Amino acid sequence: MSNDEIVKKALGEIGAAGSSGELNDIRVKYLGKKGEITMLMKQMGTLAPEERPAFGQAVNAARGSVEQALLSAAEKIAQKEDAAKLAAERVDITLPGRAQALGALHPLTQVYYEIRDIFLSMGFDVNEGPEIELDQYNFEMLNIPKDHPARDMQDTFYVSDDVVLRTHTSPVQVRTMLGQKPPIRMVCPGRVFRTDDVDATHSPVFMQMEGLVVGKNIRFSDLKGTINTFIRNFYGEDVKTKFRPGFFPFTEPSAEVDVTCTVCGGKGCAACKGAGMIEVLGCGVVNPVVLQNCGLNPEEYSGFAFGMGIDRLANTKYGITDIRLLYENDARFLRQFV
Ligand code: DAH
Fold first, then answer.
1. Of ligand 1's atoms, which has the minimum distance to the CA of residue 153?
2. Considering 59, 88, 117, which residue would you say is the last residue of a domain?
3. Mean pLDDT of 290-305
4. For a substitution probing ligand 1, which of 250, 279, 280 has the most ligand atoms within 8 Å of its CB?
5. Which tens digit of pLDDT belongs to each residue from 240-250?
6. Are residues 243 and 167 in the same domain?
7. In the structure, what pLDDT confidence band is assigned to residue 171 with cuts at 50, 70 and 90?
8. Which pLDDT value is given to residue 244?
9. Predicted model pTM
10. What percent of the chain has pLDDT over 70?
11. What is 102-129 written as a DSSP string?
């Protein structure tokens, strides 16, 4: 085959090649060690010396045109291959994303944070105490001796004769007064336990928040002002409060506080049993006996205390009529508070 014929055949194959792999095969076939054009060069030895320069030039020219054709074909194919790769890897940026399921705070936690922040803004500290408590702190030092009828008010889980699951957060009052000199201004949240059967308004575990203020010349009017400020901040300016006389062994005088029913706005409905008001907390002036039990001189110091059910506050604020919803963690219920 002549040079020209070989070149023509090579160019034809290069033109038909569809991939860089095929081009490579063609390069080997013509320009490789045993390639057709390379082999031509080897025929040089069989020629007369005067014929060699012209022959060499011709073969080099053939090699040059095949190399050139390979190069430009390689460039085109690379472009085509790049374009195909880009097309195959194309991302549709207009597709909507997959929504991530986000966690959220439990409604009780949200309500607790809200209550806590109101008291923090009034300068209260936040304290905590143990859920397993000494009988002495849960009852005795709060002026509830063993044979006192007030013990029947709170159905107690006893761990032993002297140790209980705390029935209220009031023992944290005792711990605070024992550990800290007045002035005291603190709230303490926490779980409390009672031997109640579960129903729409009872749960053996629920959440309370206690408050205690002790200092010089603290009076019932300070208690009223503090509670009213809290209630208005929590429920809204329109809500009215009513302080009814009550009884707690650790406060004297004591009161129970009702607020306008948030479900009916005071007209009377099933949620408030027609009363138009709902009881939300107990409070009073700290009984001098309790101050004395905790090593404080009642002649020098006075104080007030209050206790509320965080569940009760959450329920009244959001019109929840069954306390079990707060503890069963049905996602359909919880999602409403995200
Ligand atoms: N400890 C009471 C209860 O669980 C609530 C309470 C009432 C707390 C009056 C107080 C208070 O600090 O002064 O029912």
1. 14
2. 88
3. 97
4. 250
5. 999 999 999 99
6. yes
7. very high
8. 97
9. 0.72
10. 99
11. PP---HHHHHHHHHHHHHHHTT-EE---
Same domain? 78 vs 145: no
Q: Which atom of ligand 1 is nearest to the CA of 192?
A: 4
Q: CB–CB of 291/298 below 8 Å?
A: yes
Q: Which of 29-38, 271-280, 299-308 has the highest mean pLDDT?
A: 299-308
Alpha carbon distance 117, 127 (integer Å): 14
Q: Are residues 74 and 115 in the same domain?
A: no
Distance from the CA of 281 to the center of ligand 1, in angstroms? 7
Q: Are residues 80 and 145 in the same domain?
A: no
The strand pair at 251-260 and 163-165 is best described as: unpaired
Q: At what angle do helices 20-31 and 52-88 cross, to 10 degrees?
A: 170
Residue with the smallest CA separation from ligand 1 atom 5 is: 307
- Lining ligand 1 with CB less than 6 A are 168, 170, 210, 248, 251, 282-284, 305-307
Answer yes or no: do 152 and 64 share one domain.
Answer: no
Shared domain check, 319 and 198: yes
Structural domain for 173, as ranges: 107-337
Domain check: are 81 and 42 in the same one? Answer: yes
